[in-house]
Structure formats: C-alpha cells, structure tokens
Design goal:
Helices cover about 0% and strands about 15% of the residues. It is built from no helices and five strands. The chain has strands at about 35, 40-45, 50, 65-70, 70-75. The two termini are about 25 Å apart. The model has no long low-confidence stretch (mean pLDDT about 85).
Length: about 90
C-alpha cells in the first residue's frame, strides 16, 4: 500500500488462527483490505487495524522490516519473545 512494504504475522487477533486458513487468500474481493477467512474480519494493510469483524478495534501483529540497498528485509525484532515466531 502506498508504495511501502508492510508485513503482518499471519494470525487473526480474534482466535490466533491464520488469516488465510491455508487457502492462500488474504485479500478482500476488491483487493483493498486483508480478510480473515474464518470470520471475515477486515484489516487495513497499512497499519493492520481491524475495521470490522469480531476483533474490531484490534490489530494484526507487525513484522518489522527494513530497507537496505533497494531490498526489503526482515529486521530482527527487539521484543523479548521474538524467538517464539522466528
């Protein structure tokens, strides 16, 4: 979105299950929002905020990225439990 890269952990804040439920579909039909295939919660790509659904007002957990020499790379997170998802 907006020419920027965003990454989110593939876990809905409602139940913690993958947004795509293993079917590889992450986007709403019009391609404007990320969608949880379980309860159809809708999330903004630029900030992970849930606009509708059972987790309204919650957010996806971000994956830290960095740009270097024109490449986008995963930046090792600073939070203590980072090893739990890497």
């Amino acid at each position: 979105a907006d020419g920027k890269a965003y990454a989110w952990i593939n876990a809905c804040p409602h139940w913690g299950i993958g947004l795509d439920m293993e079917d590889g579909v992450f986007w709403s039909p019009d391609g404007s929002l990320l969608v949880c295939q379980n309860h159809q919660a809708l999330f903004r790509a630029e900030d992970g905020y849930c606009e509708s659904g059972p987790c309204f007002g919650g957010s996806l957990r971000p994956v830290p990225l960095e740009e270097s020499d024109g490449e986008i790379r995963l930046r090792r997170p600073a939070w203590p439990d980072a090893a739990d998802w890497l």
